[in-house]
């Protein structure tokens, strides 16, 4: 009889554990997707988080685990308020891995208060006034950045590349991440102005 009770208890416990697993979301990402379905917004996943078109660039970027370095740099440069503004802006947003391609110590040096002007120039070089979808970008097109210098668009093999003033090239990894105040195109390399 005690074996039967033990077996029934084990079955009941397993069923309860299964029910809790099915009812409770497995992760924050699952919760985000649930919110996405509830909101009815068409989102794009970036850095493990849904990017909501009803939120501004900063409100979305802070949720991407792939853009923590960019967010820290934007804060250090004092650009949060600007990128929360009306815009619209097109932002070529480098990932943490993109910042990791820079020479060792570069990011740590740039976020120091005494280098704020240089950091601001680099970050605003990734921003273009207006909202440009990937379909708006043509091969050879010149884009005037908020920093003042130009970027050049290159298209080849179905990919969009952005070429900086020094000849460095960055590939758009995720395009058309719509925001309430513009659009983000995730890029794999930090773009550098000439000066």
List keywords for this structure.
FAS1 domain, 9 strands, two-stranded antiparallel ribbon, alpha+beta, 8 helices, 7-stranded mixed beta sheet, globular, disordered N terminus, 195 residues
What does this structure look like?
The chain is globular and about 45 Å long. With 195 residues, it is an alpha+beta fold. Strands 4-3-9-8-7-6-5 form a seven-stranded mixed sheet. The chain has a two-stranded antiparallel ribbon with strand order 1-2. It has one domain (41-187): FAS1 domain (Roll), CATH 2.30.180. The protein has helices spanning 2-23, 28-39, 57-61, 68-77, 80-84, 96-100, 106-110, 116-124; strands at residues 44-46, 49-51, 89-94, 127-129, 142-144, 150-156, 159-163, 169-179, 182-187. Strand 1 and strand 2 (49-51) form a beta hairpin. The chain is built from eight helices and nine strands. Helix 4 crosses helix 8. It is 37% helix and 24% strand. The relative contact order is 0.15.
Count of helical stretches: 8
Report the CATH superfamily: FAS1 domain
Overall pLDDT: 81
Strand order of the largest sheet: 4-3-9-8-7-6-5
Describe the structure concisely:
The chain has helices at 2-23, 28-39, 57-61, 68-77, 80-84, 96-100, 106-110, 116-124; strands at residues 44-46, 49-51, 89-94, 127-129, 142-144, 150-156, 159-163, 169-179, 182-187. It has 195 residues and is an alpha+beta fold.
Fold blueprint:
Layout: H1 2-23, H2 28-39, E1 44-46, E2 49-51, H3 57-61, H4 68-77, H5 80-84, E3 89-94, H6 96-100, H7 106-110, H8 116-124, E4 127-129, E5 142-144, E6 150-156, E7 159-163, E8 169-179, E9 182-187
Parallel strand pairs: 3-9
Antiparallel strand pairs: 1-2, 3-4, 5-6, 6-7, 7-8, 8-9
